[in-house]
């Protein structure tokens, strides 16, 4: 097969808690190893929503009870989530590969992703992060310049922006490892969003949508396939109708029409479709596939999944 594949693992591939993650990554590693045996060169990225929320809450709760410590900024929490999720994935995949007689190095790259400080997303934060807050705690967050949204029951949550990725800072290191035939885990959770300030990279109080980061990773590694894993074997449109339509193989122009018709609304499927369209547009030979973890290899082989081409 010999395809360079960026595979974006979703929440189901990782679980939520520490014990769940240990179990989930072992099952995910079997799927990844199947793809490796089929000849795929793997570039792995993953979600981190429950994990980064847990870290953010833990670090800030610790600071709350220890006056000598300060809360951790979002960029630090994102970096920590990349580290420990990557650690679990690379060890689980290495063990599965060795069991099958495949001796490949699996490396996790702590990845920073450049964002535009003038991105409109910074004016419209939408991503909920951390635990519920009291009104007093919410007011303190706002006093620090953070954004808070009120939810039912007089409860509050912090919200952050989701700017689009512009470039991957460590892309040369990622490509060097790929050129050496290694498997790479990168851009976990969308990567750590950073902004350039002269020669310095400053962490942004934001979260990058992991599907857009996966698309940027596929673009900058010149991948053959962008494989985005979700809960469904194939994407459907007209879901509110009596007979939803299953999308199997479509071109980018058709996908854009579905986006314009709000077929994906503002749901989690929209960034997956948009990332797929961005990756394949204007590039013959590229393919984006959306399916679930159970059918990943079959989708690569063209047997199932939703396929989007130029």
Describe the protein.
This protein has 310 residues and is α/β, with parallel strands linked by helices. The chain is built from nine helices and 17 strands. The protein has helices at 18-37, 49-65, 74-99, 135-143, 171-179, 210-220, 252-260, 269-280, 296-300, and strands at residues 4-9, 41-46, 106-108, 112-115, 127-133, 147-151, 155-160, 165-168, 183-185, 192-197, 200-203, 225-230, 235-237, 245-247, 249-251, 287-292, 306-309. An eight-stranded mixed beta sheet has the order 3-9-2-1-12-16-17-15, with helices on both faces. A four-stranded mixed beta sheet has the order 8-4-10-11. Strand 13 and strand 14 (245-247) form a beta hairpin. Helix 7 packs antiparallel against helix 8. The model has no long low-confidence stretch (mean pLDDT 93).
